[in-house]
Design brief:
The chain has 202 residues and is mainly α. The chain has helices at 2-14, 19-30, 33-55, 65-88, 108-120, 123-136, 143-169, 171-178, 181-201. α3 crosses α6.
Length: 202
Amino acid sequence: MEFLFIASAHFMALLSPGPDFFLIMQTTLRLKLRYAFAVCAGIAAANGVYLILAVAGLEAVKQMKALMLFLQYGGSAYLVYIGILLLCAPMRPLDLGEAVGIMHVQNLKRQFIVGLMSGILNPKNAIFYLSLFTAMVSPRTSFTIRSLYGFWMVGVVLTWDMGIALLIGHRRIKNHLGRWLFRIEKFSGVALTCFGLLLAIR
């Protein structure tokens, strides 16, 4: 029963589109699918870091004000930076062959880092997982079971994000979205910039 509550809360959180969604969408539209998967893997790895803390029972991390402030303002600056890159990007065809800016570098390691930074610098991830394990996991639940919860959630994040990439990367959908790519990039830039600014003032 405990697992069902945790899995349901986690999945409901995934349904809400956030910065990760826009990063995955941009990468999928501009680059080959393997680069979008690298971003997904980076996002899942970042979730894994916070899940390790949550599984280990380090609820005290929430009380580390300096760390939380760093995550808040560092994450805000990163999202605003990515948003401005998209807002300043010129109109380019969908089948662009050359890399333009960090968002479109055809390098698996670089795209993994983009996804990792997006997840690590989002304090909502830290707060969500720490709160989830504090509120829903019984102190009597063994470390092994808590670890299995963590592995499950990382797997779900990776599968969900890769599913989004696969959907957007489908030839028909990608070609259809490609007609609106310039507007999509600007909308994504505005959304990411707003996410970053809201994160800074909260």
